[in-house]
Write a structure and sequence with these properties.
This protein is mostly helical. Helices cover 51% and strands 5% of the residues. The longest helix has 18 residues, at 94-111. 21% of the residues are buried.
Length: 160
């Protein structure tokens, strides 16, 4: 991914973030959105990476083809970017809607790569693996304990 494409991804991702008055302030992941985009394209198939690049180009040019303004998306304020990206998500063309959704999912993946973001949003469930006990035939076994080999076999008379 080129530096230009990384800057485009930063602009798109910031456009998808809600404004500060719409709830808790979501902070970019450590290293920024661009590092996440690089990792995403590196871990993707060639076709998916190409799709991400095409979606970025489409979104970057959205002010021209969707807004009628001779500017690129990164030059707009984040709130204006959000409006254009929302218009992409509601576009009459299925391809435009899906590419906009692809960028939104990529932004979410970038956000939730961050441990701080997952903690802020309570995304990860609390670790209950040690606290949870499973009641099995009158015996208490810790979570992850193995059942006897015959525990899941049907008993005589239970078979159809």
């Amino acid at each position: 991914m080129t530096k230009t494409e990384m800057a485009w991804f930063e602009a798109v991702a910031e456009g998808y973030l809600p404004s500060s008055d719409a709830g808790p302030r979501l902070l970019p992941p450590e290293g920024g959105f661009a590092s996440s985009a690089v990792e995403l394209t590196r871990a993707s198939t060639g076709l998916a990476a190409l799709g991400l690049r095409f979606a970025l180009l489409l979104a970057t040019l959205a002010p021209i083809w969707l807004g009628g303004r001779w500017r690129l998306l990164p030059s707009l304020a984040p709130a204006e970017r959000g409006v254009l990206l929302a218009r992409m998500l509601g576009h009459r063309s299925f391809a435009v809607r899906e590419l906009g959704m692809f960028l939104k999912v990529a932004t979410c993946m970038a956000l939730f790569r961050s441990d701080a973001m997952r903690a802020q949003t309570h995304y990860d469930p609390p670790d209950t693996s040690r606290a949870a006990d499973v009641q099995t035939r009158g015996q208490t076994a810790g979570a992850g304990a193995l059942l006897p080999a015959d525990a899941l076999r049907p008993k005589r008379g239970d078979e159809p």
